Every structure is written in structure tokens, then in C-alpha cells.
Amino acid sequence: MADKERILALLKQEVAPAMGCTEPAAVALAASYAAKLLSGKVTQAELWVSPNVLKNGMRVGIPGTELIGLEIAAALGICVANPEKNLEVLAELEAATIIEANLMLADAVIKTYKKDTQDKIWIEVRLSDGVKTSLAILRWRHNWLHHLEMDGKVYAHNELDSPDVPKLISPDEFTVADYYAYCVDADESDLNSFDMGLEMNRSIAEYGLSNASGISVGKMLMQQMESGLLGNDIHHYAMALTAAATDARMSGCSMPVISNSGSGNQGLSVTLPIIAIAEKQGYSKAEVLRALALGHLVSVHIKNKVGVLSSLCGCLSASSGAASGIVMLLGGKYKQIEYAIKNMIGNTAGMVCDGAKEGCSLKVATNTSAAVQAALLAVSDICVSSSDGIITDDLDETIANLAEFVAHGMDNADSTILNIMIKNNNRGCNV
Q1: Are residues 175 and 257 in the same domain?
Q2: Tell me: the pLDDT tens digits for 318-356?
Q3: Three-state DSSP class for residue 256
Q4: Mean pLDDT over residues 7-12, rounded?
Q5: pLDDT per position as a tens digit, 245-288
Q6: Which end of the chain is more exposed for a tag (fewer CB within 10 A), N or C?
Q7: Does residue 80 sit in the same domain as residue 179?
């Protein structure tokens, strides 16, 4: 069996709290790093971001501000200047901080530019207080500090393979079968030692059900269930719970979520379908923890193959994880988990990511529906045919086919979508 400790470490590495949409949070974090080096008031700020970060941050609500976009995120990060808060840097914002950040926007202090880079995640913040200048770069991961300097003096420079930085655990070390074996035998105390979404993600789902958030997909589904227009079953309950949480998060709700692979929406999409089925069917906490762990690990595994911030909606990998966890809850075995993942890929492989926004809750609801369907089919030993499209008999090969489709078959999708979004939103960034 694969190293249990390393799988647990991978789980903790990729499952973590985040406040607000991850791209704006990461921009705020980079701005905080740069601002902390300066003692004077920031008078000029340049934000350079990769196309994927720009796409995913352009239309999303920022917690506590009723504003959208990367400029307000950068302004808030500058005002907070507390990078120790990591991706929760936008949590518990004070009114004075929001006012100060809004004044920076009004004075046009911050300019946003598209970085010409192949990196999916590149966030570069250049600040000046009129006397000194500072530079912070996050790269590869949303919270990976790649470079930090002030007036040419380097305070930090971290490469992924630097000998003096902690080594990231790669999902390439493991297979889905390894994850399943781990989750079957994992110590409950290990799985209970951190929140995998059972508390935090369930809380924001309740907020979305109780309040008008975003486009209220989840709240509407729940109301239709209560009225009898939709059945009050595990399928619709999972859709309502997961979409409601996404509604809240995308509209700027000031509540943190448990993320997966650096994405809050993926964290919600992995966990809440599993939690919904567990609530409806009365599974124990121990059973839910094992299912959540499997869901997270499967999502991390597929996302690693497909790539972070790809042109494919991240809810596919996340909902494949959810389907795997649901199968485990329902008593399914490893072969049926393979079936569930193949069913998901065969069903939703073409869903594109056109940026983070309130409408993401629609895609989340659709993928959640597909996850429940995929799991129910799988536990009945029904799987999409190996002769269908990119599906093969081998699960690893199927996932590799999905990754190839995204890398080569959709290689122009990101730039095309981003250009349309910039035109539609009349953004002032250089393209």
C-alpha cells in the first residue's frame, strides 16, 4: 500500500480554508507581501496577472465590499498588508480598510495588465510610495511566494525545486486505487484533525439557502422542493446545497470555505454533494469523513493531470471526487468508483470555464446533478462504454485522455473566452 502518511500530507496540502474567490484572494495576498515592505502611503501600483488569473478574477464579488474585480482585491491587500493571513487575507475586513481601498480605486492608483506568460498562475504586484518600490510575485500556486524585493534588495526567491523550501507532494506518486485503499483504512483521528468541509462548507451552504445570494440557484431549488414542484430527494437536495454555497461565495459572502486544489468552488463541489447524501440517508460522521477524504483526493488527482486554472470547468474534477465519495457512502467498491469517474468524464468533459462569477452556481448545480447520477449508475454496475469518445477500459488512460483533450483540443479556448470577457466588460487592462 502507498505511504499513508504522504497521502494524508497531500490531503492537508491541497485542502485548506480560503476567503472569497481564490484568484482575488491571491492578488490580495501578493499585494500584502509588497505593501508590508513599504512604510509610506502607496501612490502607484501595477498588477500583472496571467490570462487565467485575469479571467477568473474579473467578475467575482469581493467579500464585504459589494464590488467586483482584481483592482479592489489588490487595494484591500495593500491596505491590510498582512500576508501572514495567507488566502484568508480578505477575512474580517474593517470598514475603514474598505473605505481606504475604495479611495485608491477612485484615485486610479492601481493599473492592471495581462502578463505574457505560459504560467497559469502568475500574480505580480509592483508598488511605490514615492520613495521606495517593492515587488511581490506569486507563481505556480495561489499562495506560493516566488519572489519578494524592495529597491532591488531580494527578501525571498523560491523555486519549486529549491533545496531550502518545503517539497510539495505530487499526486503523481499515487493512483486512485491508492486513495481508495487509504480511505478505507485511514485512522479516523487523522481525518478528524482538520475540517474537510463538513463544518465550514456546510455553514456557507446554509447561508446561501437562507439569504438571497448571487442568482439564488440553490435557494430557488430548495423552494421548489418545498413547494412540491421538485422531489425532495438526494438528487435535488445535493444540487440545492452545493449551488447555494456557490451563490453565497461568488456574490462576496464574508465566510471562508474549504478549498480543493486552490479553488473554493471545487472544494464546495467535492464536499457538499457528499454531505447532502449523508444528511438524507443518515450516515455516521466516520463514514462521511472517509467519503470526503476520497472525494478530495480524487479531485486533486484529476486536477493535477488536467492542470490548474485550465479551460475546463474545475467542477468536473471536483464532481468526479464527489461521485467517488457518494459511491463509497453507498457501499460501493473500487471498481464502482472507477465507473463513477468514467461516467462523469463521459458526461461533462466539454464544460468550459468562462471565469469565476455568480453564474458559476449554475455549472455547479449541473455538475452536482451529474455526480449523483454517475454514482447511482456506478453502484448499479453501469458504466459508460469504453468505446465512447475519450473513455477507455483503463481509468488512468481515461484521465490522461481528458488531460490531452484540454491541453490540445481546447488550447485556444482560454484566450478566446478572455478576449470576449474583456470586450464585454470594457476592462482597462492591456491585452
Answers
A1: yes
A2: 999 999 999 999 999 999 999 999 999 999 998 888 877
A3: strand
A4: 96
A5: 999 998 888 898 999 998 889 999 999 999 999 999 999 999 99
A6: N
A7: no
pLDDT at residue number 165: 66
Q: Which domain holds residue 47?
A: 19-164
Total domains present in the chain: 2
Q: What is the DSSP string of 102-169?
A: HHHHHTT-EEEEE---S-S-EEEEEEE-SS-EEEEEEESSTT-EEEEEETTEEEEE--TT-TTSPPPP
Residue 144 counted as domain residue: yes
| Three cell numbers, residue 129 | 510610495
Distance of alpha carbon 50 from alpha carbon 18, whole angstroms: 20
CATH code (residue 228): 1.10.4100.10
What are φ and ψ of residue 146, in 5° steps?
Answer: -85, -40
Contacts of 346 (CB under 8 A, 6+ apart): 384, 388, 389, 390, 391
Alpha-carbon gap, residue 375 to 105, rounded angstroms: 47
Contact 196, 15 (CB under 8 A): yes
Largest CA distance in the chain: 68
**pLDDT tens sequence across 355-410:** 778 888 999 999 999 999 999 999 999 999 998 899 999 999 999 999 999 888 87
Same domain for 175 and 228?
A: yes
Residues in the chain: 431
CATH of the domain at 102: 3.30.1330
**Domain check: are 297 and 376 in the same one?**
yes
Per the structure block, which three cell numbers stand in for 300? 486533486
134 and 244 in a single domain? The answer is no
- Indicate if 214 and 232 belong to the same structural domain: yes
- With residue 285 as reference, give the H or E element that holds it: helix 285-306
Compute the distance between CA of residue 254 and CA of residue 259 in angstroms, rounded to an integer.
15
Q: Which pLDDT belongs to residue 428?
A: 46
Same domain, 192 and 86: no
